[in-house]
């Protein structure tokens, strides 16, 4: 029986409403490593100093024992997230409303909830979308409200013709970037993300059939969010992103941005023009 045949959407939807609460601390050590990882020009903030907006991806992550991991390096299915029996799992997109900033020394509480589980059908077969909300609190403040979209799908059929990825335009602003295997490994380490597609080349090429290590969607989002803040001189109040095609560790790529009313449209694109991620940033 294939994963698609075993997919019981009514059972999976019974996960809707489940909640999970985790706590963490924004430490000087995390701020220093985060700044070093992204090669940020300013020094890491001291106690009380504001940290970058999407550093919360590194906080309050599940610390599952090795015996509780699945073959892809993620926690085994059926805990907080529903046990979707499709082999590929990706972070497809998300959105954020920022009510303030986290600072070094803040005690952080993350309240997570399964909001929806939806089954769709695409070119490669079944697609299962799981929507998760996260509320990031520091003391009595709600700092970030987040929506996370996770997609599960089948492996590509052997010999199937791959759909041509969309092509990107040149932005009014652009910044060349690289995301080599070292950066991917460091980001996986800081986010305690064991997903093998980001650091295990043999697994990602031989099991999941990709041509290289996959650059984390959240890391691309963090790059674009920081870029928006650099262009406007302050971080956005709202930010949303959507992954369109994979970006690999040996791909040269750029961050792009163009005005969109009072906000910015942003995207990542490979040197050959392949569009990988789109985003929108706005300011109050």
UniProtKB/TrEMBL annotation:
Biased segments, Low complexity type: 157-168
Lineage top rank: taxon: Bacteria
Residue ranges, annotated region (Disordered): 154-175
InterPro entries given in the database record: FAS1-like_DH_region, HotDog_dom_sf, Mitochondrial_HTD2
GO MF annotations in UniProt: (3R)-hydroxyacyl-[acyl-carrier-protein] dehydratase activity
Pfam families: FAS1_DH_region
Boundaries of every FAS1-like dehydratase domain copy: 67-144
Name by which UniProt lists this protein: 3-methylfumaryl-CoA hydratase
């Amino acid at each position: 029986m294939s994963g698609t045949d075993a997919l019981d959407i009514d059972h999976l939807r019974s996960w809707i409403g489940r909640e999970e609460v985790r706590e963490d601390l924004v430490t000087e050590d995390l701020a220093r490593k985060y700044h070093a990882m992204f090669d940020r020009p300013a020094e890491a903030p001291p106690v009380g100093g504001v940290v970058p907006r999407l550093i919360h991806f590194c906080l309050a992550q599940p610390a599952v024992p090795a015996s509780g991991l699945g073959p892809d390096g993620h926690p085994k299915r059926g805990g907080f997230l529903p046990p979707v029996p499709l082999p590929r799992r990706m972070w497809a997109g998300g959105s954020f409303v920022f009510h303030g900033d986290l600072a070094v020394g803040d005690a952080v509480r993350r309240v997570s909830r399964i909001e929806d589980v939806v089954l769709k059908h695409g070119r490669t077969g079944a697609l299962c979308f799981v929507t998760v909300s996260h509320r990031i609190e520091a003391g009595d403040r709600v700092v970030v409200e987040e929506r996370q979209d996770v997609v599960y799908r089948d492996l590509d059929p052997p010999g199937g013709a791959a759909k041509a990825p969309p092509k990107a335009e040149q932005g009014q602003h652009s910044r060349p970037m690289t995301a080599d295997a070292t950066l991917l490994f460091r980001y996986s380490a800081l986010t305690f993300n064991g997903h093998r597609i980001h650091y295990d080349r043999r697994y990602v090429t031989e099991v999941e059939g990709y041509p290289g290590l996959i650059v984390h969607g959240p890391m691309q989002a963090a790059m674009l969010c920081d870029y928006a803040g650099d262009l406007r001189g302050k971080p956005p109040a709202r930010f949303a992103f959507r992954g369109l095609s994979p970006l690999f560790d040996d791909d040269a790529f750029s961050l792009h941005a163009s005005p969109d009313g009072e906000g910015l449209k942003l995207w990542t694109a490979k040197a050959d023009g392949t569009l990988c991620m789109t985003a929108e940033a706005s300011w109050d």
